[in-house]
Every structure is written in structure tokens, then in C-alpha cells.
Specification:
The strands form 4 sheets. This protein has a 5-stranded antiparallel sheet. The chain folds into 2 domains: 5-50, Uridine Diphospho-n-acetylenolpyruvylglucosamine Reductase, domain 2 (2-Layer Sandwich); 60-266, Uridine Diphospho-n-acetylenolpyruvylglucosamine Reductase, domain 3 (2-Layer Sandwich). The protein starts with a strand and ends with a helix. A hairpin with a 2-residue loop joins strand 4 and strand 5 (66-70). It contains 12 helices and 14 strands. The longest helix has 22 residues, at 245-266. It is α+β, with helices and mostly antiparallel strands.
């Protein structure tokens, strides 16, 4: 691991200023993604700007029809929150199945979505619920946020501060877990709310995506059987040592059906 400067700002504005003054700075909160890449020599930032002690970046609040979660809120906090379990139990379930207890105790919502790992779980929850991502300078719709492999719409130096999740009528999450890493070999988040049915898929392609054929089928019949006749093309999906594109294509409607079933159980 390379030498680096370490900074601990007291506010979001100070954090953004510190990052802007660095030659190649990175924000760090839980560090579950960044520190691993630094140890492997895949990232060598000149400075780390620690977000963990900035007031207001962590915590969960309930607004009218919306659950707002601060960017440095850990996965464990989301999983254990009575408000999340009551209003969006599928999101609590998603958080509770990330990695292992050590990862859940340190990893954060903001870090996960800003990194946008193609197999991460949170992007599916954010996209599947049609959430809004708040930064130090603007608000971004989930449909516009995830743009490609480890890529987002964030500008250089832009900091995620919170995510607002509309409370759905129903939502479910199902994950085929890669046993070594705990990431999603494929994961599917389904929700039904004021904006209709949304089905988001992670782990299957270079970036989380919405599955239009499943959305159409589930909107017409919000039941597991609606997913059984849907066929997902394998042409744009990942093949690797863990699974072929064809296997991932097969898993997507299967997991969607399980997510719809879970949505019915939770409500």
C-alpha cells in the first residue's frame, strides 16, 4: 500500500475542499472497497478524506412517504433499523445479507453506490425502489445515477450525502449469493409503488439495470407465476468462472419470482 495523507474534516464543505486540494484524493467512510484495492496496488490515492465523523451523514429519518438514509449509515444499521424493517423490509433484508458481519459493521450505503460494483447489492435496492441520491450539490434520480462498470453520474469531487427511498406498497429482494465473496452472482429487487412496478438486477451485467420484460409481466400480474414465462436474453450478460451468461439469464426470472413472493409475505 502506498503512503498517503489522511484528513478528518468536520463538515461536508470541509471534506469537499480537502479533496479538491489533493493531487489524487479519495473519500473514505467504511473503506470496504477502497482499502482492498489499495492493498492490491490497484489504487494509489495521494490523500484520503475520512467522512466517518461528519455530523449528519449517518442516520435514518422518516419523512412523508420517504425513508431517508445518510450516506455513512452502515449496512448493519440499515438491517437493524425498526423504521426500515417496518416501511421497507426488503431493504433491511438486502442490507442484512451483504458480505459478513464485519463488512456490515463497517460498509456504508454511500460507499457502496458510489463504487457501483457490478455485483453489489445496494445498487439494485436503490434502482429497484426508484430512489433519489442526494449529493453536496444536487439530487440525482436512480435511473440517471448508475452509468456503467464502476461508473456513476457523480462529478469529480462530488460527495453522496444521503439517499431518499420512496416507501413502496410492496417490495422484495432475492439474491443468489457467490459463496466466497458474499456478492450477488445475481440479485433481483422488485417493488410496486406509486410509479408502478420496478425490477432491478445486479450481478448479471457490467452495471445494475432494470429488466423491462419482467416489469411488464409483473405489472400485469404481481405474482411469482408472472415471472416464469419471461425469458431474458443472455447476449449482454456476464460470463466468468462463477457462472455463464446463460445461467445468469436463467436465474433472473427465477429470483424475480422469489422476490415477488417475498414482497407478498412482507406485506
Amino acid at each position: 500500500m502506498n503512503d498517503f495523507g489522511f484528513h478528518r474534516p468536520a463538515s461536508v464543505a470541509e471534506a469537499v475542499r480537502m479533496l479538491g486540494a489533493a493531487a489524487d484524493g479519495r473519500f473514505v467512510a467504511g473503506g470496504q472497497s477502497l482499502l482492498g484495492t489499495m492493498k492490491l496496488g490497484l489504487a494509489a490515492p495521494s490523500d484520503l478524506v475520512d467522512l466517518s465523523r461528519i455530523g449528519g451523514l449517518s442516520g435514518i429519518t422518516v419523512e412523508t412517504g420517504v425513508l431517508r438514509i445518510g450516506a455513512t449509515t452502515t449496512h448493519a444499521m440499515v438491517a437493524a433499523s425498526p423504521d426500515v424493517r417496518r416501511l421497507i423490509p426488503a431493504l433491511a433484508n438486502l442490507a442484512d445479507l451483504i458480505g459478513d458481519p464485519a463488512v456490515r459493521a463497517r460498509g456504508t450505503l454511500g460507499g457502496s453506490i458510489a463504487n457501483n460494483d457490478p455485483a453489489a447489492c445496494y445498487p439494485a435496492g436503490v434502482l429497484g425502489l426508484g430512489a433519489t441520491i442526494h449529493t453536496d450539490r444536487r439530487a440525482l434520480a436512480a435511473d440517471d445515477f448508475f452509468t456503467g462498470l464502476y461508473e456513476t453520474a457523480l462529478a469529480p469531487g462530488e460527495l453522496v450525502t444521503a439517499v431518499s427511498f420512496p416507501v413502496p406498497q410492496q417490495a422484495g429482494w432475492s439474491k443468489f449469493r457467490q459463496p466466497a465473496s458474499g456478492f450477488s452472482l445475481v440479485g433481483v429487487f422488485v417493488s410496486r409503488g406509486p410509479a408502478g412496478v420496478r425490477v432491478a438486477v445486479t450481478g448479471a451485467a457490467a452495471c445494475v439495470f432494470r429488466c423491462a420484460p419482467l416489469e411488464t409481466a409483473v405489472a400485469a400480474d404481481f405474482s411469482p407465476r408472472a415471472c416464469t414465462g419471461v425469458r431474458v436474453a443472455a447476449s449482454d450478460l456476464n460470463s466468468d468462472l462463477h457462472a455463464s451468461a446463460e445461467f445468469r439469464a436463467h436465474l433472473i426470472p427465477v429470483l424475480a419470482g422469489r422476490a415477488v413472493q417475498q414482497a407478498g409475505v412482507d406485506r
